[in-house]
Write a structure and sequence with these properties.
The protein is α/β, with parallel strands linked by helices. The protein folds into 2 domains: 116 residues, Rossmann fold (3-Layer(aba) Sandwich), CATH 3.40.50.10170; 125 residues, Hypothetical Protein Tm841, Chain: A,domain 3, CATH 3.30.1180. 39% of the residues lie in helices and 27% in strands. It contains 10 helices and 13 strands. The strands form 3 sheets. The protein has a 6-stranded mixed sheet with strand order 10-9-8-13-11-12, with helices on both faces. A 4-stranded parallel sheet has the order 2-1-6-7, with helices on both faces. Strands 4-3-5 form a 3-stranded antiparallel sheet, covered by helices on one side. Strand 3 and strand 4 form a beta hairpin. Helix 3 crosses helix 4. The longest helix has 16 residues.
Length: 280
C-alpha cells in the first residue's frame, strides 16, 4: 500500500516532540521585523519573538511560504513514492494554502492533496495529528483525507486576547470588528468560525473569560473523550495551571501544552490564551 505523509505549516504551533512522534512535516511561514526576515519556528522561537515584539516600535509583518519552498518539500517527501496530504490554516487568514496549491500544480506527477483546515494554531495541529495517526496506522490516502475532514468537524477553539489592536492592524479581525472600541477591562472572547475570527462574547476580565471558555467547553463536550490543547504566549506556568484544570474538569485523553508562535503572535499579541479540544 502507498504510504501517506502529512504536511502542515508553522501556524499549527505544535510542540517539537509531537511533530517528531507523528512524523509531521512543518513548512514555516515568515515573520518580518523591519528588514529582518525570520522563519517561524526555525530561526525565531516564541520566547525570543515576544521579547522582540515588546521591544520593537514597529508591528511585525508575516508572509506565507513561497510555492517554491512547498514544491521542494513535496519533492523530498514524495521521493519514496508516498502520497502527501498537506493541511493548512484557513485561506481566509493567509495565502499559505494558495502557495501549497500552486506547488501542487507545479508537480503534476506527484500524489498531493491540499486541504484548507478552516482553522489555525494548535487546533490546526490537532487536525494534522489526527491525519498522521490515520496515516501511521496504515490508512490509505482516501482514508487519511476522510480522517482529516472528520477531525476538522470534531475540533473547536476559543481564545481570549488582551486587545484587538493586533488583529485589527493586521487585517485579520474578521467578524470581531464589532468588538473594537470596547472598554479596556472587557476581554474579547473569540473563536474561529467559517475560517475567520468570530466574536463569541465580551467578558469583563481575563480570568472570567477563561472561566467562560471552560464552561462553554464543558457544555459542548458532555461526557465525550477529548484531546485538549492549551496554548499561551510563552507563559509556561499559566499553561501548566490551565492544563491541570482541563484534566480535572474535562474527560481528557491527553492535553497538548504549547506556545503561540511568532506568526500567530504577530496577529493576536502578548497575553493571548487559546483553549481547543478535539473529540477522539
Amino acid at each position: 500500500m502507498q504510504p501517506v505523509k502529512i504536511v502542515t505549516d508553522s501556524t499549527s504551533d505544535l510542540p517539537e516532540d509531537l511533530v517528531k512522534k507523528h512524523g509531521i512535516k512543518i513548512v514555516p511561514l515568515n515573520v518580518h521585523f523591519g528588514e529582518e526576515v525570520f522563519q517561524d519556528g526555525v530561526d525565531l522561537w516564541p520566547e525570543e519573538f515576544y521579547l522582540k515584539l515588546r521591544a520593537s516600535s514597529h508591528l511585525p509583518r508575516t508572509s506565507q511560504p513561497s510555492p517554491g519552498l512547498f514544491a521542494e518539500t513535496y519533492r523530498q517527501l514524495a521521493a519514496d513514492g508516498s502520497a502527501l496530504v498537506s493541511i493548512h490554516l484557513s485561506a481566509k487568514l493567509s495565502g499559505t494554502l494558495q502557495s501549497a496549491q500552486m506547488a501542487k500544480e507545479m508537480l503534476p506527477d506527484l500524489d498531493i492533496t491540499v486541504i484548507d483546515s478552516g482553522t489555525v494554531c494548535t487546533p490546526l495541529g490537532m487536525v494534522a495529528i489526527a491525519a498522521a495517526e490515520a496515516a501511521n496506522g496504515g490508512a490509505d490516502r482516501d482514508a487519511v483525507i476522510a480522517a482529516t475532514r472528520q477531525a476538522m468537524k470534531d475540533t473547536e477553539v476559543y481564545f481570549v486576547v488582551d486587545t484587538l489592536e493586533y488583529l485589527q492592524m493586521n487585517g485579520r479581525i474578521g467578524r470581531a470588528t464589532a468588538m473594537v472600541g470596547s472598554l479596556l477591562s472587557v476581554k474579547p472572547l473569540l473563536t474561529i468560525d467559517g475560517g475567520e475570527v468570530t466574536p463569541v462574547e465580551k467578558i469583563r476580565g481575563k480570568t472570567r473569560a477563561i472561566d467562560r471558555i471552560f464552561e462553554l467547553i464543558r457544555q459542548e463536550v458532555g461526557g465525550r473523550r477529548v484531546r485538549m490543547a492549551i496554548v499561551t504566549t510563552a507563559e509556561a506556568e499559566e499553561a501548566k495551571d490551565l492544563a491541570a484544570r482541563a484534566r480535572q474538569e474535562l474527560p481528557c485523553q491527553d492535553v497538548i501544552i504549547s506556545n503561540i508562535g511568532a506568526v500567530i503572535g504577530s496577529h493576536v499579541g502578548p497575553g493571548t490564551v487559546a483553549i481547543g479540544y478535539q473529540f477522539v
